[in-house]
Amino acid sequence: MCIDADRLWDTLLKLARIGAYVDARTGLSGVNRLALTDADADGRRQVMAWFGEAGLEVRVDRVGNVIGRRAGRFDHLAPVMSGSHIDSVPTGGAFDGALGVIGALEVVRSLNDAGVVTRRPIEIAFFTDEEGCRFGTDMLGSAVACGRLPLDVALDLTDKHGLRMGDELARIGFQGEAEERLTPRHAYVEVHIEQGPVLAAAEMDLGVVSGVQGISWWELTVRGRSAHAGTTPMSLRRDPGVAVARLHLALDAMARSGRFGPEMRATMGRYDAHPGLVNVVPSRVICTVDLRNPDDDQMARAEAAFAEEVATIERDLQVTIEREQTARTDRVPFAPVVQAIIARHMDALGLRHATLLSGAGHDAQELAAVCPTAMIFVPGLHEGISHNPREMSTPAACARGVEVLYRTLVELAEEG
Question: What domains are there in the chain, each with its CATH number?
């Protein structure tokens, strides 16, 4: 191998200690580096220190994205970029996002060890709040960098406690001064844990990612009438909790019906009732809806059916439902030419690989708007479970993915 597999694994585990916690129910170790928290800040500082030790020129932009640059022989040429994110969901694991950043760092370290200077510069990025579970917009930092989300809109987003994204960025010391909009790169390649069971079930070593399915996120505020749980007859209630339950079941039925394609997915991941007391009918419930579909036309049909269901529930239960779309991306195809380079290096190493569409969102889908882009998937254990302390891969699987990343980035960085 060109890379140092032991160093890669050791660095991954060191980063996993920052924000580490033990799940009370399972006793498993997980990672909680929610975006722009103190744990995220500690992780950022550690990774920046590693970037500096590797000789990278580091800059922080106005939305908090961190980019390290390794000079090329012709430094004016558009760079090749790799990376991902280091923020996590509150119940995360050690690999989601982190593998992409630490894997790209290992590529640079290995190039340094070999004394190789590539024709083009190579950049490593970690983007702010890819997860989106704090400020409600996924791929936040890369969406700003690639032009989908205006900077001022991003900085004014608030979390569930009313804390403003820009204020939190400044609080942890990562509201940089560098220009956030990326000029076109020569290419972007990201290595990532699959977060699903496909590769392991097919006994594949790695995956070539052909693109990312469409994603539609909504936040709903359902308002009814608060009342005493014991004295208010069922016939006189306007219960927003019932409305949310009915909508949840309707979304599940939509996704399972096949009417919107066999791969539609629907999830209601959050519901907060107010006042949240055992003996009080709530006055309002805030919930989220996550729709996913690899077919843009089917996604549009599902969104229309969702809107119709909301209107029906409002009428039937005499509640009001306010809908705010917090994220929306169509299916994003990745560049066939970059996929072909990745597959060729997998073949050269004798690795079994499959081509698959990503069900999860990634920073790579934003970068696809500014340069040829593709991804490498590394299989996970435990049926590919992710966003969970059980998220796990193996040293060998991670090393294979990063070895292919090394060879791919070097080939791209030597192109004219």
Answer: 5-213+333-413 (3.40.630.10), 221-329 (3.30.70.360)
What are the start-end ranges of the H helices in 218-295? Answer: 240-257
Helix (H) or strand (E) holding 214: strand 214-223
The rounded distance, in Å, linking the Cα atoms of 314 and 23 is 39
Q: What is the pTM for the complete model shown?
A: 0.90
Q: Map tokens 């990343």 to a residue.
A: 405
| CA 120 – CA 378 distance, rounded (Å) | 26
Q: What is the pLDDT of residues 359-400, one digit of tens each?
A: 999 999 999 999 999 999 999 998 889 999 999 999 999 999
Phi-psi region of 147 (alpha: psi -120 to 50; beta: other; left: phi over 0): left
Contact 257, 269 (CB under 8 A): no
- Model confidence at 25, pLDDT cuts 50, 70, 90, reads confident
* CA-to-CA dists, residue 217 to 30, 224, 385, angstroms: 26, 23, 21
Mean pLDDT of the chain: 96
Q: How many CB atoms lie within 10 A of CB 269?
A: 12
Average pLDDT over residues 410-416: 96
Q: Is 84 in contact with 362 (CB distance < 8 Å)?
A: yes
Give the Cα separation of 326 and 313 in Å (integer): 21
Give the pLDDT confidence score for residue 358 in this predicted structure: 95
Q: Report whether 405 contacts 15 (CB < 8 A).
A: no
Report which of 33, 56, 67 is spatially closest to residue 367, judged by C-alpha positions: 67
Q: Which amino acid is at 48?
A: M
Q: What is the mean pLDDT of residues 130-140?
A: 93
Q: Determine the 3-state secondary structure of 292 from DSSP.
A: strand
State both tokens at 7: 């160093």
